[in-house]
Fold this protein.
Amino acid sequence: MEKWVVMAKKADFQKIGKEFGIDPVVARLIRNRDVEGMDDIRSYLCGTLDDIPSPWLLKDMKKATEILSAKINAGAKIRIIGDYDIDGVTATYILLTGLKRLGANVDTYIPDRIKDGYGLHSQLVEKAAADGVDTIVTCDNGIAASQEIALAKKGGMTVIVTDHHEIPYEDTEQGRVWIIPQADAVINPKQPGCGYPNKNICGAVVAWKLIWSLYETYGIDRDEILEFSEAAAVATVGDVMDLQGENRIIVKEGLKRLPHTGNQGFQALIEANGLTGERITAYHVGFVLGPCINASGRLDTASRALSLLCTKNWDQAAKAAGDLVALNQSRKAMTEEGRDKAVDLIEQSGLSKDRVLVVYLPECHESLAGIIAGRLREKYYKPVFVLTKAENGVKGSGRSIEAYSMYEELVKCSDLLEQFGGHPMAAGLSLKEENVEIFRRKLNELCTLTESELTPKITIDVPMPISYLSRELTEQLSVLEPFGKGNTKPLFAQKGLRVLNLRILGKNQNVAKMKLVDASGASVDAVYFGQALEFQSYVQQKETVSVTYYPEINVYQGRETLQAVIRNYM
């Protein structure tokens, strides 16, 4: 059962509408996205890359820039150690391209998900030492690698950490103690004492900021700095960062540039997915392009995705992009199979009674654990951990709900874990097989989630009658884009609607088309995507229904019509 709530944030919507030439409904939608004050509204509507914070505000940025400048000038051997997901791959691409542009003696190593695991492990430090590496630069990892960094320092290496993950800590009798690695420079906006205003940038944006400061130091043209905005935008969407403030500007500007990108790899991936000539949206990055980049690190090696982004040869790019699309198709099929097995296990074993789901699928490919956890969270609206058998013990990924900080809950179970890290909404972990059941029980014993917090909340922006809908208002909604986490697509609602001319379409019977008519006789074409037969059955038992919806312009055979896309009904 869902709980529908109406957002009730207040402002003078008429005045805002007049000031910016927008419908008062659009003004209300902007306020609902926690944007208030004329300056912030102006930045939301008109902000450009000129408005984002300076990289020099990041703690240790000056130190890192000075160290790297000296290392580049001395020809010292630098190794970038990245991560195998979309954020880590794009961060590695940005650092590698930027440092090479400055003449650095630099190479990269992206850990193998299965062989190496996440982050900077001791074997990677030992390999770097054996290869004569002078300086390690991490990206999208490193903040939780205090021991490994101490090992590198003991071996005489310089270490610079660029990361955005939560800072590890211990709760002691004296209070919370932050555990920050003793690297030569640590760039992470979440660390105590960092004055950077946006604490929620992704790893690729942290990496971009470091290259930005280096390019400024070397007097490189600003246009070259901004060439990385496309990669930064892709990583921000792909790593599901909040699309607010700086992040929203980066994504908005990066998406504008993406259809005409000079990067051969991005061009080839756009073409391989049939998006050439299209307007690229955050949806395309999150659900079409991004998963192809991620599939490389999941089912093969992330170095394939990195090679795609780095290549300047069109034939190589086209082949690599085609391979990634094929890999992603395999990944989708394996994900569906894993999800179905997990649902069977939950339903048949009594796990469904748990408030925190811990599902052990020994045979599941460990790279798919996070995606399957996300699917289960959608189905059950509970925090979910999916665990799989690994070479040494058990590995897993978790996906959370708003009321449950996954990272903080893992800290409470750290005595059962070999390794863990992440965010409030997602985490990764490893543990011994004999601890799996103890871990499940402990998480649930410690869980304080209430029934209310475990009820999906549908937040309605405006209870708006369909009679108010117009083409002009619908087109104006585009000023709110890009949509994503923290800047969701608008959701309207109306009660007491009659459903006429309902018909089911699609080979999987997953589309319902109809006309919605309100009490005044106003009507609009509407469509529902999902369990269309269930929807039909529900509607047939009711005189009228309540729906949440968003409006869009539907284009079919060259004809444009206004339609409401139904999201929820009751």
